Amino acid sequence: MKPRKITVKGARYARVARDGAPAPPLTAIFLGTSGSYREDGQVWGLRGHAHIQSGVGRSSPLCTIADSVAHPHGVIGERYHPRDMAMQARPATPPSPPITGEAALKRLLDEGVTWGDSSEWLPVLPEASVNLWFTSPPYADARAYSRIHPDRYVEWFLPFTKFMLAATKDTGWLVLNIKNRVAKDGPLQGQRHPYVYQLVLALQQQGWRWLETYIWSKPNAVPGRFGPRTKDSFEYVYAFAKGTPHFDLDAVRVPYRTTVDEIERRKLDRLGRRNTDAGFGRDRTKTYLHGAADPGSVVSVPQTYNQHRGAGGHTAAMPEGLAEFFIKACSPINGIVIDPFAGSGTTAVVTRRLGRLAGGLEIHKAYVSTAQQRLRLDGPGDTPTLFEMAR
């Protein structure tokens, strides 16, 4: 079925073809906000937050009307919260990369964050050139600026990582911050959707080596209404490697929690290794020889609420402490770190501050302007965080 354009105004009626058959009539009451979002490589214009009433009498106050209908399922109304409608208008399509290879990579590194579509830029980057991809891509069906249904998320994401794998050095990483969600509809409604786990397995099959799962613990997670469950207070961070990766544990060690007296006492212990019923024990005399402790795989960093200060109004700004932890551990000084979903530029800002070369791609021009301003000012967008092990 050829996509067709429909504009809904006032309280007029419209019919939307769904899989070739007409859907029930929709009554739209236009309330007057505009913006856009991107899904499956296409830009969707939005016109207004509206009350939608279907022909069967069901009503939803959390819908929008699209004036350009090109959705593969022919759906004209997607569910949104009114706060998600505060989006910046932008040109529909960023320019395609005018250069390829080393010149394209140099352009990204020079600009820090480039206005561009990752699906077009990633294929033109030189092979084996990137030390670390650190990114937090749009979560499934979570933000108005980028809606991807969880059922289609793996299919949407894999083309990006195919080209990222080719451009990764043998010692390089893909570190992915992503969060699962509760399904809004379908047979899994009310349950946790498995799209995150499906994606991890798909990346492994694509050729990425799944080396570790980290937990980003959020001690100041936002309370709210989550149904028969407690509030979300963590997110996953998955670490994939192309080959044998660079990893600097010493760069992210945390202070010992024991007392100075205990550390000094251990230095005098000549029988530190003891066998137990559980097996051959570790040598306790070597516990404190590194000067600081291994932080473990649970990284505690407070969530950032800087949408109106350092992140240019971005509704899902990453805390700088999270980026700092993985950039320090997974990339060398002067290494190349790229974020293909750069948002307001947190990865790029932290990367440069830590003495690495930063590149980023962002499809929303307003966020690019914010990111480039942050890079020029070279100032933190949130309070620096000391890494801690979760208690």
Question: What is the strand and helix layout of this fold?
Answer:
Layout: E1 13-14, E2 17-18, E3 21-22, E4 26-30, E5 34-39, E6 42-53, E7 59-66, H1 101-111, E8 114-115, H2 118-121, E9 130-135, H3 153-167, E10 168-178, H4 195-206, E11 209-217, E12 234-241, H5 260-267, E13 273-276, E14 279-283, E15 298-300, H6 320-330, E16 336-339, H7 346-353, E17 357-362, H8 365-377, E18 388-389
Helix pairs in contact: 3-4, 6-7
Kindly describe this structure.
The protein has 391 residues and is an alpha/beta fold. It has three domains: 13-85, no CATH class; 101-252 and 293-389, 3-Layer(aba) Sandwich (Rossmann fold), CATH 3.40.50.150; 260-286, no CATH class. The protein has eight helices and 18 strands. It has helices at 101-111, 118-121, 153-167, 195-206, 260-267, 320-330, 346-353, 365-377; strands at residues 13-14, 17-18, 21-22, 26-30, 34-39, 42-53, 59-66, 114-115, 130-135, 168-178, 209-217, 234-241, 273-276, 279-283, 298-300, 336-339, 357-362, 388-389. Helix 3 (153-167) packs parallel to helix 4 (195-206) and helix 6 packs across helix 7. The N and C termini lie far apart (55 Å). Residues 1-91, 306-315 and 380-391 have low confidence and may be disordered.
* Secondary-structure class: alpha/beta
Q: Unreliable runs, pLDDT <50, ≥5 residues?
A: 1-91, 306-315, 380-391
Number of domains: 3
Strand order of the largest sheet: 8-17-16-9-10-12-11-15-18
Judging by the overall fold, what is the CATH architecture of the largest domain? 3-Layer(aba) Sandwich
What is the succession of H and E elements?
A: EEEEEEEHEHEHEHEEHEEEHEHEHE
Residue share in helices? 10-25%
Instruction: Give the beta-strand count.
Output: 18
